[in-house]
């Protein structure tokens, strides 16, 4: 039985069982007498978000107020997702100050009301420190906090829920209802169906039972109808079945059979893309499925023995199966359609702090939250890159002391939220208040490892990740024990005290035996060791305020809010990213972490610049000038020429798992060529390495994933049209877009090294540079003739869609005579006429960010750099550049000419990138198995077990 607190599901407030003077709150970042808002520069921006498929405006709000260092993406996502009030009404929030105040002041008031603070001064420090950390993107609460806290609607703060269902029709119908209410609120839920009797057992009336798989069909239909958060994304849900359930084989095969149906319907001409008109006829697509295995089963697999399937009502074995054969069926199903995942029951419950109140039988949809049935967890994640320090000598360190202080601040705030939180059902509210489960975690691990010169799949990388995770969880439980002295331990603690303290000792022992590797992780391990010593000592005296403290969540939307390069525990997606620009438009940039990594590895500035230039051109580090091959692994990413091996992902999960209360939201990506045997090995090693849960995804294993290059208006093609097309090799060629008869132009006279000339640059009326004419003063000379021919070649290339920045990158710094002084104040010296021409064109036609990345600045910008240390353009220049963001663009119908026919035949890369995923696709000539965002049409990228849209912040999961 689950131990619960009494009281209504909403608005219940308990001040705890112990009286104390309250917490003393320490200043970390703030200054007495100065509000955090007064320490940053605020600016006004316009947010206009469009659907790239048809150009329609999805969201628009003008004059929003944010700090000047917040990126375009972060501003767009916070404005569109988290600001409350009807758009266009006076009640609509318009400033980040309003949003942070709405949340932080609610937390402070609840903390004062429930006796958390020693004095009003401590409450004010708490408010200021929390506001500073949010303002500077040091951490973020999960989305429901931003949606609900401080508003008139129910104050739901949790993103993750676990339900329960028993073997009765009443309980099954309650499951449908409760799950639907959670979906409606924009969150996700998971549950274990193993208490429902199998189809091989009899009902009390004498008939055969339907079995859990049949009831899954009804729940799946309900989830597909309700969706999540209204209609913005598919519902996030997890369905778990124990491996000893007699219907486990039918459960394993549910999605495999449906995937076969998808292929047959697609081949018959039906629209089976995700979100297509006909995909709704396919069942079981709204849930992640996982099989819960135990040690008995895994040992039988290892030994090649038999395993008994047990009746739900009596527990007797009604069928024996070959364990290895059943395990094989799981791997075959995962190979075919990515489901089911696997959860390791004995490992999960070995780390359970409250076993006397019930076993852990299920997880939330993303598999990071695992605790009692009918419970919830609110999440918050820290941005690890904010704690990386560089000293005056260029040495790096992780600021373990400040990290620990921020963890204490955040975990305090998270616990306060349970005091005022509302919950979707009475049972969930009761259990959550009785056990106060929290889920602190982090984001940007992949970026941190690369910036510090660690390969993701390396002993050093795993040591640093383990140390940070251990310090985070140890500090959280230490603060939980301190809170127990102030406001009392969680209500279920007394019954579970021995088990809770045993688990704390397990964490401390794992910390003590972990391998130390280098100067970065060793001090963090030392801080973690001290924290765990305090946990064991203080916890034995005071008890603990929280049954659970930490998880590693996907950090999808909030990762974008914090401007994180990587989500959760994931590695970097690729070395070249897609970046939105102020005023509209976008550009591709090499990750900012790459230069930091090269500096850490000992490369000089000139070498770093050459390597970064190589990455910008090729998208990878292979054969980069001066880069030692032994350092290639540091720059391995989730996708690309050098992608991280599947076991590399598993080993990273194993490094963090012993130091987490919950589990890890992560999918192990495998290449299309992966075999069933490799999946078996992944699942087996996950058990041996002590993971709690694991899921794999083999590239191209699912049909119902749309390709971003497919025209959305093409619907319902017949089989007769499809079959011949599949056999053809389609070669895409660029299409020339000629300029109109009348076009705007700029004529520039110039002198380079004594050679005089004229350049006329003509533009499309609305789409950037289209042609260049070059005339040298000495007609009939070889130079004049070659420049004529060269300008024609460049003009034709521009009209076929070659970006101007490509020409600029190729031809600037080219050295030949005539060269020397020029009469242009912005380009005082040129190494050749070609060097001058493309510097001038860059200044006239390229946006500031693109020019800056290429090292091309005007005289005024260079002067400003001398005065302020920054090349940032003025407001007037930004207004001018916002008009030029579209120049130059690839013309309609054009494609990168480097695409090979064999690649295009399989799946042509998108014409124009709208996200980092599409940018990687263009570099590789491949397609990522990711859905298009339901809100804005941008191709999403994986974040943990979910998908994240970089365009608008929508996710396919529960965070």
TrEMBL record:
Domain (TSCPD) ranges: 743-843
UniProt feature, compositional bias: Low complexity? 896-908
Q: Show the InterPro entries listed in the entry.
A: RdRp_reductase_class-2, RNR_2_N, RNR_lg_C, RNR_NrdJ/NrdZ, TSCPD_dom
Q: Name one GO biological process term.
A: DNA biosynthetic process
Keywords from the UniProt entry: Cobalamin, Cobalt, Disulfide bond, DNA synthesis, Nucleotide-binding, Oxidoreductase
MF-aspect GO terms? cobalamin binding; cobalt ion binding; nucleotide binding; ribonucleoside-diphosphate reductase activity, thioredoxin disulfide as acceptor
The protein's Enzyme Commission number = 1.17.4.1
**Broad class of enzyme this protein falls into:** oxidoreductase
Q: List residues of the Ribonucleotide reductase class II vitamin B12-dependent N-terminal domain.
A: 47-137
Instruction: Give every Ribonucleotide reductase large subunit C-terminal domain span.
Output: 158-697
What the protein does comes down to: Catalyzes the reduction of ribonucleotides to deoxyribonucleotides. May function to provide a pool of deoxyribonucleotide precursors for DNA repair during oxygen limitation and/or for immediate growth after restoration of oxygen.
Q: What is this protein called?
A: Vitamin B12-dependent ribonucleotide reductase
Taxonomic source organism: Streptomyces xinghaiensis
